[in-house]
Amino acid sequence: MTCRRALSRVGLALLATSAYAACSETSASDVDRQSLGDAWWTGPMMANSAAALPKGHFLIEPYLYDVRSPQADNFGSLTYMEYGITNRLMAGLIPTFGYTRAANGSSSAGVETGDVSILAQYSLTPFREDSAIPAMALMVQESLPTGRYDRLRNPMVDAQGDGAYTTTVQLNTQTYFWMPNGRIVRMRLNAGGSFSHRTEVDGISIYGTPGGFHGYAKPGRAFNINAAWEYSMTQRWVLAFDLVYHYAEGTRMNGVADSMRVANRSGSSAYFGFAPAVEYNWRNNLGVLVGVRVFTGGHNSATTFTPAIALNYVH
Prior knowledge:
Blueprint: H1 3-27, E1 58-68, E2 72-84, E3 89-94, E4 96-102, E5 112-113, E6 116-125, E7 135-144, H2 155-158, E8 166-178, E9 184-196, E10 199-202, E11 213-218, E12 222-232, E13 237-248, E14 252-257, E15 260-265, E16 269-283, E17 286-298, E18 301-314
Antiparallel strand pairs: 1-2, 1-18, 2-3, 2-4, 3-6, 4-5, 6-7, 7-8, 8-9, 9-12, 10-11, 11-14, 12-13, 13-16, 14-15, 16-17, 17-18
């Protein structure tokens, strides 16, 4: 499926949702509408928030997950740590750790550090109930190649990183609408692109290079679109669902192995994914999410099944 066809399908789904939201808002006038203050949220599994974090406040959200495929179980953790510098500008850090157990019995030597990301997000517009304009924010994220990606013994279990400095620029949006029964649905729609810098590679690596190789690799540009919906069943209980489409160009490699010149480019890849989840909130600033992310596979992409749990705390 081409990127244009995929985006057309996502666009039609979002258009239908928007039309239904307009009708629902009118219908909900006949019942008691849930107030925004009565709805407590943890957030869906994949879609970033466009809401501003107030100055001096911070968010901590650790995830534990297991990326399952026929070849291996990749146990991991990542933690969002964000701080409001001003009422519009937020900065954050995302460290990751991982451990892999392959189906053939091999495994990582221990829990290892993965890539670390830093991010900044600037709020463009806030959400207002009397306006059709959603909350919007511009996010810039830089992934640092702190995890192992080359000089590997067994790439399936030793690798914990993507190997290159990668910059992502993304527009995040968030809005609310009311169902006919008066309950709130929160919707996010985010779209962005990323590009990676050239990185030095030695020996066996995640890029498929052989032992004795010395050269460079440059991952291709990527595009991602993510839509998410959360339904406030009660003040504490929320149902969440993500849809995602990802496309990436191939990686170019150039170097020398055993005195032979090596130069090739891998093919592009694409996949769809979805992630149902349940949220429970003890307070308006403390909640837990339990869900599963499924990447359905596609062009040069593997099918994976990832159960996950996250704790969200804002102060």
